[in-house]
Write a structure and sequence with these properties.
The protein has 289 residues and is an alpha+beta fold. The chain folds into 2 domains: 99 residues, Phosphorylase Kinase, domain 1; 185 residues, Transferase(Phosphotransferase) domain 1 (Transferase(Phosphotransferase), domain 1), CATH 1.10.510. Strands 1-2-3-7-4 form a 5-stranded antiparallel sheet. Helix 2 packs antiparallel against helix 3. The radius of gyration is 22 Å and the shape is globular. About 6% of the residues have low confidence. Belongs to the protein kinase superfamily. BUD32 family.
Length: 289
Amino acid sequence: MRLITQGAEAHLYKTTYLSPTTPAALKIRPTKPYRHPILDRRLTRARVLQEARCLVRLVREGVNVPAVLAVDWDINNGATNGGDYKSDDGRGNGAWILMEWIEGCVVRVVIQRWEKYMKSRSAAAAAGSVVQGAKRQVDGEVKEQDNIWLEEEEKKVKGLLRRVGAAVGALHKAGVVHGDLTTSNLILRGAAEQPASEDGNEDGEGASPDMQGEVVLIDFGLASQSIQDEDRAVDLYVLERAFGSTHPRTEPLFGEVLEGYRASYRGSGSVLKRLEDVRMRGRKRSMLG
């Protein structure tokens, strides 16, 4: 079992399920010593069950999310009263959920590599460097090749952003809101990992990253079942703000995410209208500090 990431609420490990060749993701919610034992136990149980229920519902609706393999909402060595675990002070030892392992690359990393690639390629083109192995000497040829290259790269990233929007649309159509929609909680299934450079850094400046594959939503620790347009609009607003802070070069293309959302979710009209209201409230909050 290998630790993948450690957050404030949970630890994520890569492990196996049933056989050594079947990878799985184990998410453990540890106890919080600063909380009252009984309250901590109830909150931990409620949150892990909420996450599991949301995932099961989404899998049933055909949304691209990890499948739930097993759940234990109260870790301890002993059990009483039909399997209800208890410790001496009433506090459980946390909870865990075992899920399907999604092989691929985090969308945040893919987009960041693309932005670095575009920046380095643009700088090289401006300096008159060699592009695609052919030395360009005529200004008209330079502009034409640059335009073709730019169109192809933007087409790739726009396709990815539309798939992101379609994934969010499918999520909302199933009656679930994520609660923490960022590009860190999206995985591009099957996307190749960027090979490390000689100094060991995965800078992504050497080649355009792979953007093929389906977008999978992960980390439903803050998810809930909701059919309210307000909740859905807040989901989109959180994702939009994440683009602004994490992907400045790609932020102007966020409209592609909304186009993908609109195409995949029939009720998107009222949600996108509510999104405008959420944006206005966000701007006022920013101005007031």
